[in-house]
Amino acid sequence: MSQRHSDSSLDEKLLEYRFHAELQLDANGNPMSGLPMVRGSLRARTNAAFEPEPSEPPQVPLEGEGSRPIILSTQSPAALKMGTQQLIPKSLAVASKAKTKSPARHQSFGAAVLSKEAARRDPRLFSTPSFSLDDMDVDASTAGNLKRNIRNQSYRAAMKGLGPPSSKGDSCQLGPKLQALAEEAAQPPARSPAKNKKTLGRKRAHKGSFKDDPQLYQEIRERGLNTSHESDDDILDEPSSPEATQRADTTIVVKSYRPAQLTWSQLPEVLESGVLDTLSVEERKRQEAIFEILTSEFSYLHSLSILVTEFLQSRELRATMTQTEHHHLFSNILDVLAASQKFFEALEQRHKAQVCVEDISDILEEHAEKHFHPYVAYCSNEVYQQRTLQKLSNSNTAFREALREIEKRPACGGLPMISFLILPMQRVTRLPLLTDTLCLKTQGHPERYKAASRALKAISKLVKQCNEGAHKMERTEQMYTLHTQLDFSKVNKSLPLISASRWLLKRGELFLLEESSIFRKIASRPTCYLFLFNDFLVVTKKKSEESYLVQDYAQLDHVQVRKLEASEPSLPGGSGRSSSVPHPFQVNLLHNSEGRQEQILLSSDSASDRARWITALTHKEREWQGITNKGELPQVEITKAYFAKQADEITLQQADVVLVLQEEDGWLHGERLRDGETGWFPESFARSITSRVAVEGNVRRMERLRVETDV
After folding, report:
1. Which residues cross the membrane (predicted)?
2. Contact by Cβ (8 Å): 593, 552
3. Which span out of 194-208, 521-535, 670-684 was modeled with the highest average pLDDT?
4. What is the pLDDT of residues 239-274, one digit of tens each?
């Protein structure tokens, strides 16, 4: 019997103690004095296997009669001499027919009988595991050798008794204390592949098709999004051990996603064709990039289908809202789904036609120009979608309960509905990076590179239209609403708010530290409410949630801001006000609505809020200054989606890379590298990219994308 079937030293010690105590054996495995002998001394037979006595077979003692001891061979000299193999009485062996099926996994007797759980429940209790009957027979052709697992079989027979097995298979008592338990009919549950020590750190076995086990798009991260590598083997090779995984993650220290489970090189048709033996490394990388666009589109399509079937078509959810709210929430998602289905079918048809796909750039370009227009409409509706969802979640109890029940369904994977609603925005912003990866892997072929570049330009143009549509819709609706809320009756000249070139940068209420001339008449409330547009600053007093009385305004070019320390003497009350004025700053209107100069001393609730106001008020100066060397600034990768709640914040998708411009009190001000948009977001939604190589590679790639795609 092989070593893997032998008991551990701890199990043997426990068994030795147990059997010696229960069967009253001495240290040498022989019965103690005064006990009847079943057979001769164990020392007398050291060179041969035990044979049954010629006399009649032993009988199980009846109740009330003295128990005859059972002598096992665990400590016999023959067993010690044989090492891991043990010699056992033939009467204890049970013959079984050999099966042709694959042998089942066996379990050591000591680990099975003396499990921690059984010992904790009852020290006298032995739990009998289910043993395999495969390969139990003695190999007659090899004298003196026993087949594997016969020891388990012998102990199984010992647990069932020494007498002939009954027709019903009933177990019998072995002694006054040691009792047998009936075997469990059910087999132990199969271990998960992830927990199997034999597969730990290795690649999981893949099925024949990438469609076999569809993943939610929210839970994957395409390899093509890894902007830190431009020409290495990150797409070809997967780590084969935990150490290799750790080395692969040193470029970006973020482990928030799992990559696609199946690569092109692992497809059965690819392996059977033998093309991997003749394919160049560059061509193999290109095939992997093509295949990832296909598989990620399938995963995205799978998640979109769940959004439609589980949420859009839910009667319970629809009954909790009006028709307008339902339209704002789901918009034209059916059109987006149809566009994705058509795109995937075209990619799949090309994939099935050839083992090595010649190209898909023409498909990308055609669909970006002719079939992806529903994305622009869906992204333009984003502001209404987010507002409607927030309104329903805050004020509609029936909606919250119905949504909670749907999100619990297995199909949703424990993810909230918002993660499904943002899928089109998420997909359309990832496509340029995936297409750019295809460009990088096609540089050795001029014609294919030109086709991939045209596809990249078409998709980037689509993304630009989506962004502009979302901004235009949001800004137009925002300016119209503010036009009805701002009252200019207190100023000499009204400001026409509605303009296609004007949008809101930031708004909020701040504390007044002294009475300015524009606030003397209404100084009972020491606060003011500011509206900062991209070209004007409007100072108001808040009358209600939907009404603001304008006190003054000035062009942003005529506004200066200065950060103050709480202990500065210039503040009202001097250093004694430091505790009540934690975050002061000063705003100067060099030329206000009446042509005069005005100074306002303000204070915010937090250091981050003050920093955000100062950043917003000086945004034009920052635009002129620019950033000389972006590679020297820190970068972060977004680990989970963040939705902007204020005008100066930025909405970020998973896997976005952001250049950090400023950090203050748990908030980061950054520039999204894929399109250059800036804004604030919580630091908890991002993790640092620690590798300088990755940081510089990201900057180079994003600068190249902006030049080539004119984004």
Report:
1. none
2. yes
3. 670-684
4. 433 443 343 333 333 334 444 467 899 999 999 999
Predicted local distance difference test score (pLDDT) of residue 697:
87
Place of tokens 């030049």: 707
Reading the block at residue 449, the tokens are 């590179």
pLDDT in tens, 126-177: 433 333 333 333 344 444 444 444 444 444 444 444 444 444 444 344 344 4
- Token duo for residue 147: 């087949």
Pull the structure tokens for residue 285. Answer: 């990388």
- Rounded CA separation 347/362 (Å): 10
Looking at per-residue confidence, does 163 or 517 come out higher? 517
* 8 A C-beta contact, residue 204 and residue 240: no
How far apart are alpha carbons 650 and 680 in whole angstroms? 6
Residue type, 564: L
Count of other CB atoms within 10 angstroms of residue 154: 24
Q: No. of H helices and E strands in the chain?
A: 21, 13
**Residue 396 identity:** N
Q: Tokens in use for 175?
A: 């002694």
Contacts of 246 (CB under 8 A, 6+ apart): none
Please tell me the distance from the alpha carbon of residue 472 to that of residue 474, in angstroms, as a whole number: 5
Q: What is the residue type of 155?
A: Y
- What is d(CA 479, CA 499) in angstroms, rounded to the nearest whole number? 8
CB 463 within 8 A of CB 429: yes
Question: Encoding tokens for residue 167?
Answer: 């027709």
